[in-house]
Amino acid sequence: MKNYLHFDEVVSKDKDFVKEAYRESTYIGFYNLPDQNIDNIINFANKQDIDIVAVIGIGGSSLGAEAIYNFLNSKNHYIRKLIFFDTTDPIAIENKIHLIKNNRTLFLVISKSGTTVESISILKYIDTKFKLNKDNLVVITDKNSPLEKFAETRNLKIFYIPDNVGGRYSVLTAVGLLPLALVGVNINELIYGAKILKDSFFQLIKIVK
What we know:
alpha/beta; globular; single chain; 9 helices
């Protein structure tokens, strides 16, 4: 039977790991996300009178939120539905469009670069099916991206992804927090849990350093 080292044993045996973790925390934004102020996300979510949240995004723009939602929804059974347009498969897209039976749907188009071909293609198609405007479409992207410029032409609400947070690590930004808050997830508790984990991680590193 294989013996596994506890985390503190791993750290004490690998000082380079400790040094690199501290170095990364100074410039990789992911480490700072548990300490952010999320009032703007919560305030926006609380004002929405909707039945369905539809996320248009591929890969890191949807997978994190989807994983958390599927995990929590099995127990909490949130009243609002969360739908993910995360594939260019035309049959899958049409099946999900059929789930949207009224105009009480808020679409979130998410792309860090603002140039993700799949997401933009899905957005353009959905725009032909629904009248997308400032009342039912929100953009989540980088500052100065093409998607930001598109949002400005339609006067859409924009949430920005921090420059130093990669798309695959963005679940604790508006990318994941906004759709989760909109369906009823307590994202304050989510962030608090992440902060506890982060603080305990760095505290342990200090102890064994």
